Amino acid sequence: MKLQISVDPGSPEPPYEQVRAQLADQARSGALPVGYRLPTVRGMAEELGLAANTVAKAYRALESDGVIETRGRNGTFVAAAGEAAEREAAAAATAYAQRVHRLGLDRRAARAAVEEALRAAYGGA
């Protein structure tokens, strides 16, 4: 299996976000199976012609999202993201609900804010 990542220097998306999004998509689709060992930060940076800090930023974001996990000197691997992603989403939803309640928004206004945010994040109507 060969990792397929490309960076478009003309894209409005920053390079780290392009790397992050492509790795996340491939991990979530199964194109990169759970346990797949990713290249080192330096190796990926050299392969893509990027600064190591750019790739490190993408890896940190992916690790924070539960998509990958670093096992010390053993390397960085695709994680079993399903359960971790669901737990994080539930925690974010709980924090949001508590916050809008403290702000005094009713359920309708809170739902409308969520729907607008989802439209912005996912695109479309």
From TrEMBL:
Highest taxon of the lineage: Bacteria
Protein keywords: DNA-binding, Transcription, Transcription regulation
A matching Pfam family: GntR
Gene3D superfamilies: Winged helix-like DNA-binding domain superfamily/Winged helix DNA-binding domain
InterPro entries in the record: Tscrpt_reg_HTH_GntR (IPR000524), WH-like_DNA-bd_sf (IPR036388), WH_DNA-bd_sf (IPR036390)
Domain HTH gntR-type stretches: 13-81
Protein name listed in UniProt: GntR family transcriptional regulator
CDD domains, A to Z: WHTH_GntR (cd07377)
